[in-house]
Amino acid sequence: MPEITFPEDLPVSGRREEIAKALTENQVIIVSGETGSGKTTQLPKICLQLGRGEKGLIGHTQPRRIAASSTAKRIAHELGTPLGEHVGYKVRFNDTLSKGAWVKLMTDGILLAETQTDPLLKAYDTIVIDEAHERSLNIDFLLGYLKQLLPRRPDLKVIITSATIDADRFARHFGTNEKPVPVIEVSGRLYKVEVRYRPIERDAVAIPTADPNKPVPKAVAAREKRDLMDGVVDAVDELCRIGSGDVLVFLPGEREIRDAAESLRKHHPPHVEILPLFARLSVEEQDRVFRTTNARRIVLATNVAETSLTVPGIRYVVDAGLARVKRYSYRNKVEQLQIEAVAQSAANQRAGRCGRVADGVCIRLYEEDDFNKRPKFTDPEILRSSLAAVILRMKSLHLTDVESFPFIEPPTPRAIADGYQLLQEVGAVDDNNELTPLGRKLARLPLDPRVGRMILAALDNACLTEMLIVASALSVQDPRDRPMEHQQAADEAHKKFADDKSEFLSFLKIWTWFEQAIEHKKSNRQLMDNCRANFLSQLRLREWRDVHSQLLTIVREQGWRLNEAPATYEQLHTALLTGLLGNIGFKDGEEPGAGYLGARGIRFHIWPGSYLVKKAGKWIMAAELVETTRLYARCVAQIQPEWIEKVGAHLLKKSYGEPRWEKRPAQVTAAEKATLHGLIIYSQRRIHYGPLNPREAREIFIRDALVGGDYDTRAPFFAHNRKLVKDIETLEHKSRRLDVLVDDQLIEAFYDQHIPQDIINGAGFEKWYKEASRDNPKLLYLVREELMRHEAAGVTTDMFPKAMSVTGIEMQLTYHFEPGSVRDGVTLAVPLFALNQVSAERAEWLVPGMLKEKVHLLLKSLPQKLRRHMVPLPDYAGKFMDRIHAKMAFGRGNLIDVLIADIREQTGIHVLTADFKMETLPAHHFMNFKVIDEHGRQLDMGRNLAALQAEFGRQARAQFQKMAEGTAPTGEGASGALSVPAAVALQAGAA
DNA sequence: TTGTGGTGT
């Protein structure tokens, strides 16, 4: 062991005895202190001095890879040993540790991953969790894990380091509220920072609308932005007046950085260097921040400069107090990335960035009161994230349930339920929230569960080769660079990777391009230039390839087959869809700004920077949906709705409407509608309804097909029953009552009784009937008596004849019962040539079955003083009928005259024709005449015979003559029933 | 018409 020394100028060095003592006496201690205290580098050395690191490693975690490797290098350097020998680091894709090492720097993600293979973390005798106050998902998970582990590893020592303000929280977490674990506070070596509050001067112009439901009008948004830029410029001015020194300005995003850069450039002399700084900047652009020059530098940064990067030499800070914060919305299941006010802890961290080399000044662009009202801490990531991945990992580690896991701040039941729901959606857990075999496979993949699901689907779809490339691309940052100053050039360069239907395919094209670039490279330098010329980040390309090769290793270990034949669009995209079912969209309008309707009623738009923004089709899926100024879909591709049906079958909710009988397929169909998370995938699809609702389908089959008659069958019962019903219906019209035929329900009941329950369609019915009718041929035959109500028995052909003979010509009679209709009553079909032969007098008698009612009404129309001699009127009418029949006098003479004579005979009363009020009788008591031509076509119809004869009389006569001349000489006059001389004679007689 | 920063089986 080399000699261990401690740099005396670090605050932590002076407290090392105290720390060592606390660690000897306690299993867990908290060390709090601000940046510059030296805790990160010195703590492992204090542990070493205590003899730790011998039985097991001193594990030391950092939130970021860079920090892990640089800390390892520094400690190794301070111990005077080569990196990797006694002090090494392990991050993803890089492990420098040799066997006999004592100190292992690593990312917290690595330690978390190791719990999978080493659940008791036996490799370690001491663990330092650094920067615990950052409260990333990994850190919160580790803190819970360690809390559970401690009783089972009494020999394990744990040090948590944190910023001063939240040390207590950790102390209570590892101890109890009453007896927290010791906190050792080490001062930071920070200079004094003076904080000035310079709230933004709001423009005096009033904001026009106060409706909270309306979006902020553009003009107002623009004014607010200008106000912010004015505030930045004024603050920078104020700081520059204080003296020399570089300025760091915290802004929420790239856009604000660009605007501020523009405002400052207009305002400041050219020798001031204005440097943007955010994570997506190319390495070269970021490097400018670390090169110092003589000019004053104004660095415009996102919160990358709050924790991840330390900009050297900063004397002044301007804090807009804003940041974009990622939050997962459980309601819509989308991520939000909106600008929020930062917490006090973040504001203080920002201010601290100017106290590292000398006293500093920080200007906050908001009120002190505003600061004091802000929350103390940024919400930990676990309260802002989808928990699906966390739950999956916990399940595969066989940890206690999420519900009871000792999180520092446990997620809400609602968030947990949401996480389970997503896992169910991808099939990782079953209905009881237990891990499925598929879930176990997913847990083995170092990917978001949804991306992991795509890989498993790709295995089944024979597109794993392509999917590995796409899936790894989706889990790293986009390799495409789009520098602020060269956006158009970048877009132009990226065009060659574009595809008209899918942005996922762009990843494959970039991949191929890079493979070829590597293959044909002349030097590393040339490759780098090539990447730069194509606006691709070599760093991110490398990361992508690293993830890809890691996945490839797992795939080979599992023995999963890589396809050699190139996958089709459908193969790849249905596999992608398996993981993206929550991110589908349907364009429900043609106007340009319409956007897409998505799951759960959300509405989103394609990211404006997308190549497909104007050409994506009706149905799309998106790799991600993030709500910024609007809900935007990034990385989209066209899909077919049929794929959703196939891939999302387990999520489709189907409903059925309008069940109805269809004659041609001889089955009951219904309109099926399918929705996925409320989004209609299809509707109005006619499907066979029988299997879904056999009872209802059978009812409809009986009602509409068998009883309604909408059915094609050769089964004899059917024609028989139909005819029977039709006959009876004809009777109904004759008797002018609709209750002759029994109700349809009774006929339905008849079929219902005889047909087995499982008959739901034509095919099933025919099969059954064929068998069943063999033994019982009259099965399903309806019987006339059963179909008729007894009261209707009086309807006979004598009473309601089918035809009437007029001068030897048979004219058809039809009956219709429909009050108000022109056809109501009885209609006589009169051939044109015989029109003049029809006698109005005879027509007054109608048919025997209708006369009694007519007579009754005629009597009723008489004045009271006359009709009282005939009461009761119905009886008189009935007896009148009897007398007519007895005399065989039906149809003979004028009806009214005959009736007048009868009354006189029976009562001695003198009634005149004018006493009858004919106009009070309903229309159906007068014969309806239908004039037809020789082809049976109707020429006219009406009850006024005289009017018809006046109109058609001439034509009728001409046709009558023609027939008489044409037939008489050839001796064919007897054809039909026509006898011309007799007809002529009768006509004369009638006139 | 435009997205903060990290991490890994």
From TrEMBL:
Transport listed as a keyword: no
Domain of life: Bacteria
Gene3D superfamilies: 1.20.120.1080, P-loop containing nucleotide triphosphate hydrolases (3.40.50.300)
Top enzyme class: hydrolase
Every Helicase ATP-binding domain range: 20-183
Keyword set includes Chaperone: no
EC number, UniProt record: 3.6.4.13
Keyword set, alphabetical order: ATP-binding, Helicase, Hydrolase, Nucleotide-binding
Domain Helicase C-terminal residue range list: 231-398
SUPFAM superfamilies the UniProt entry points to: P-loop containing nucleoside triphosphate hydrolases
GO MF annotations, alphabetized: ATP binding; hydrolase activity; RNA binding; RNA helicase activity
NCBIfam families: DEAH_box_HrpA (TIGR01967)
Name of this protein: ATP-dependent RNA helicase HrpA
Organism: Zemynaea arenosa
Gene this protein is translated from: hrpA
